[in-house]
Amino acid sequence: MPRPHWPVPHVGQGDDDPAEWLPRASYQSTHARAWVQVKHYCGLTVDSAETSALSSILNGC
Predict the structure, then answer these.
(1) pLDDT by residue (tens digit) across 8-43?
(2) Where in this protein does the record put region Disordered (predicted)?
């Protein structure tokens, strides 16, 4: 898998995950897909709050 890039402006995000912060509505699907790619690429875990938020976003894409 190639190294993912972050295609979405994330000013204001800090270290918040998708359960705590989301970009404007027009970028949420792109942001969620990028978040999953980065987590997978880096071998990072996803907690239950992230999973719930990401599922809700991606099911609406």
Answers:
(1) 555 556 678 889 888 889 989 998 998 999 899 989
(2) 1-21
